[in-house]
Amino acid sequence: MAERNSSGLLMMMLEPSPAIAMTLPAEVREKLAELELELSEGDITQKGYEKKRGKLLAPFIPQIQGVDPCLQVDHRIQASSQAVALSSKHSRARAANSRDERFRSDLHTEAVQAALAKYKERKVPMPSKRRSVLVQSSVEACTPPDTSSASEDEGSLRRQGRVASSSPSVEHWFNRVIQCSSTSSSASSTSSHPGGRSHPSANATSASAATVLADLMAHTQLAQLPDPNQPKAEGVQMSPLRGDALVVGSSAPSLLVSLQRWGTTQPKSPCLTALDNAGKPVYTLTYGKLWTRSQKLAYTLLNKLSSRNEPLLRPGDRVALVFPNNDPVMFLVAFYGCLLAELVPVPIEVPLTRKDAGSQQIGFLLGSCGVTLALTTDACQKGLPKAQTGEVACFKGWPRLLWFVTDGKHVVKSPKDWTPPIRDAGSDTAYIEYKTSKEGSTMGVTVSHAAMVAHCHALTQACGYVEGETITNVLDFKRDAGLWHGVLTSVLNRLHVISIPYSLMKVNPLSWIQKVHTYKARVAVVKSRDMHWSLLSQKDQRDISLSSLRMLIVADGANPWSISSCDAFLNVFQARGLRPEVICPCASSSEAMTVALRRPPEMGVPPPGKAVLSMSRLSFGVIRVDTEEKLSVLTLQDVGQAMPGALVCVVRPEGIPYLCRTDEVGEICVSSCCTGGSYYGLPGMTKNVFEMVPVTASGSPVSDRLFTRTSLLGFVGPDNLLFVVGKMDGLMVVGGRRHNADDVVATALAVEPMKFVYRGRIAVFSVSVLHDERIVVVAEQRPDASEEDSFQWMSRVLQATDSIHQVGVYCLALVPANTLPKAPLGGIHVSETKQRFLEGALHPCNVLMCPHTCVTNLPKPRQKQPEVGPASMIVGNLVAGKRIAQACGRDLAQLEDNDQARKFLYMQDVLQWRAQATPEHPLFLLLNAKCTVASTGTCLQLHKRAERVAVSLMERARLNPGDHVALVYPPGIDLIATFYGCLYAGCVPVTVRPPHPQNLATTLPTVKMIVEVSKSVCILTTQAIMKLLKSKEATAAVDVKTWPMVLDTDDLPRKKIPQMYKPPSPETLAYLDFSVSTTGILAGVKMSHAATTALCRSVKLQCELYPSRQIAICLDPYCGLGFALWCLCSVYSGHQSILVPPLELEGNVSLWLSAVSQFKVRVTFCSYSVMEMCTKGLGSQAEALRMRNVNLSCVRTCMVVAEERPRITLTQTFSKIFKDLGLSPRAVSTTFGCRVNVAICLQPNRLGNVAEKGTAGPDPTTVYVDMRALRHDRVRLVERGSPHSLPLMESGKILPGVKVIIANTETKGPLGDSHLGEVWVSSPHNGTGYYTVYGEEALHADHFCTRLSFGDTQTVWARTGYLGFLRRTELTDASGERHDALYIVGALDETLELRGMRYHPIDIETSVIRSHKSIAECAVFTWTNLLVVVVELEGSEQEALDLVALVTNVVLEEHYLIVGVVVVVDPGVIPINSRGEKQRMHLRDGFLADQLDPIYVAYNM
Length: 1501
What we know:
alpha/beta; 1501 residues; 64 strands; 7-stranded mixed β-sheet
């Protein structure tokens, strides 16, 4: 039976009730019910259930050729025969695995199954989850070796203590998946394997695994396109709908008048019957008792409560009512007692714990309402959490309350001459009802006395209430329909209310039906949930009759999925006297109260309506009957006619409230005297919601009346029936299309629900990520669900949602059973769940992220433009109108200094000269962990020790000049002496970090590799290390027989060297500097004698180093500037170096700072790792250090030696923490060096007046650049605090003799001022080339000897491999010239080329670390075309999966990148070198080789 409205567009399927359409025999319905029970309790499979059900129904359905009988059921019968799950005993609570029937629809279930059948099995990688925490190694074992990486050609190693020596690769994570049946089109992945270890059978390659992911991503659209087939509304503009005229009798001008009337004229008439948890009546409150008890309470509140001789309460004050759901009598007395006392009751839920979901927001409401008194019962007050004083605890966010117990002994009888003031209903506030918004905030809706009584009259007229009727109320009597029918309208009409508590419903879901039968109730007020629960318990109740009911009001009839429960309930209980026409769904909201209600049939209203609408069209806000697929449909029932006295219209939900067309879905708005008046204390929101003026298409107001928004989305159908498709609170607008959270819940529950979701508990909400809403589904999984079940269910939910709703799910999270926050009367607290998700406090056990499917609004990938030719760019010293970006330190030739060492060309000659000139001058003091001097090295001691080493090399080892010698020593003076011993003998020293005794498996192969790559013919070391190199443990790690000759230098004969070796030229090789780049490449740089002395002179001039100075060094002495400061500079300049080995800080973290204080050092050097160790280890101990007399006011310069962008946050934190110890914030500065030149920038002495002219410079400047411009290789300066701003600090003052230019990485042409390019350097102390086993000349020529393609093509430059820019500042140097600041942005080798843009890992990592408090460290790298984010979890392992969504969100929001893989690991897994720099390529190798032992690996699809 279909009708078409006047526009000819809206076609509704109006049908009689399902049971009228076809009634199945009672025995068939009984068998169906038993089947449903078997399925709900897991006694039968879904397939078996469908087969048996099909056989039962087959005789009643016309056969369709070629179709399975179980799929042939007409949707009307499906609706009627669903959800008849039974329980053998009425007292049994509903089965733990029963699904939420409110969202049940067989038609929808079959649509979902059909949609899933369309999908082919697809190979999707499942995530890896650790089963157990493996034993962690000690802190010492985690100390990273500086050279913890192999050469580029031989693979690489990871940080010590975290590597499995021979683990198969990451492919096994994919192997299980590629073989298993994952079916997700857009899913990401999760499976688990014990301990994160792979199986020997893993045979796939990482290339094939990457191909699987690449194929899945190949079809991803990155640019969001408008849908060309988007339907448009074509109907005429709707006309406002008028309800019947409201008839108000003169006998009841206010509720209090009615209360007085019934209390005095019908005192014995029953008002309310309360039940206990066994269902027995415990107390019946009569109208006489209600009147007298309310009077007593009103008198007590007004006259017996005082504070400082002042009445505590005055008329109009707000009072909280805190009553449990099982005590309606006390609530009723308190509510009317407040009204009689002219107080404003604010009913709220009982706070069970201090951390109830939403409790803080309730406290905010009470505070904003100025509530100081809370009324409660004696039993409830005893059950509230108590403070140590015995008083009720103060709940988080709540104001301080006085608790008053309203039981009889606490109230006093009023004097005979006292009567409460009873006035006619006016506009003053009667009560405040709390309402929780979509975001979780709680507002108070004010209801005036006039609106309250008018609403009661409207309900009386719509429901046909007559005096003395009995109604059964299952709802919460504190708010919504439970309050309106069971507390207010009941008193107006002298009704007898049977109140069914929630606690009784949990024990006996059939209790409300039994009470309808027992009391011959005429009306019942329930929710669809209560109808469903009763279906599970009705099997043995043969004697129940519902024939007395004339109205069964379904309070949540506005939920589109309530139709399923209504039909199923009718199907079962029609045989027990329930007439189809008594089911009356209604629609309501806190703001507009009752909006619409289906009238009982005796009122001569049109028959109920039903509409089968296309979900796809509904998502565009257009109403169309589904005629094509029959898969994606929404079946609606009407919610009846508008309320008496109301004017209803439907307006567009966003923007200006234009009236909708007749075939358009919008927000229902009501103008009536029966609505709420405002949100208490929120005038702005009140104006938007309660004072709305709908306008026509021309912009003119629809009426001179103000309208109230109901938050209900719907339309007006034929016969002026209202239909609701969803709520604004559940509305999710994704990509411009509207989706309803309940619809997605229904789809998720239709995917194998009985098997998986615990009690149908699913929360669906949207979060805003990258300028659009993203759908998140959170479900509780059954305790016995396996990982495979979880993954399969999640994959199928994604497919079903994609097919039914044409929208992708951004995140699907599964949590353990009973862990989602609950609403006061059951159900899930959705806003609290969303808050936990966003805060990373949800603790899921499985997560599936699908950003590649959902995020379709990314900016388009960058297309690189062709470069401008050189001729049109360069004019003199200008490039494209800007000064060429070049700068230089002071000119060495023009510097006059009294440097005696300048006359020597070789460092060995300088040492000899110092041994003769100042033999007893101490050059070195080595400190131990106790901050005492372990050993000293004077000029003469060093010289003599070096001589003995040289003799040993020449006589014992018989080495020739030019032979390479590996020096394997712990940090100390022996290392320095043997270095000079090699120079004395003409050998080339190679300093190597010794292996870690507790971690030989990782560190010894690195030592072996350096020895082999450097072609060392001899190893010099200590006796202890020599034993270690040849020990049994070493045999397991390397082939000890292939070591070259090993000499220990502990006891050398005292011999003088017969003749010192004289190198033929200063350009000959002095030493090899082997180090690990941050990209994990191990290579040796050749340093000539000339470069060595030039480096020492440049550092001496920059830092004003003289024999009278002391400096403290807390650096590793094996490579780079650390080696130069440790072994070279003191010998050249004659100053005293206090050596603090960083390894000793593990035993005494304050060692370095104590040494600086003890020796009153003015200049000190450290690494970022040392600074971080002090910041973390001493952050809370500043006071203790002061008590130990640690004073850092002596420090003029504290330089951080680094090969990276300055870490502003760390240096600022360090300065702030130790400011109280006298450290000047200006003292801390950074340096910059790299492989080709270990010292390009050093900030000179900046404090005091001692600085010589020319050395003092301006403080380092900080600029803020646009991070988005950097991705396009551009520098755009912005203000501090601008969106996407990134602070960059200059890397120090350029050293004397050093020239720097910024060059284009591709054209090799010079760039202009403030342009981003590669930093090139020209200097006497540049390295001369790489020394590798293959001797690659191309590398040498490109890195160490390159020229500009145009401009100054004569100068020879070395390429640093770092991106940066120069900027001329307004500051001046001591020489009076303007200062050129050099800013380092990052290593070119480390940059990530993604979507045509260049990203610096540190920027992404900074965002990720900020996203959650438990992320200790982070590193990113790319793998094929995926961005991999590795995070170290510093906290409970249950937080691991929380990080997946947060990491994905923050990288999308701030960097417009989709994370491909999120790996959660233990602290200490990310390898870091001795300078504190992350070794991202080692990490990548460890990831691919499955050596990280991850807690969790998630593959985002």
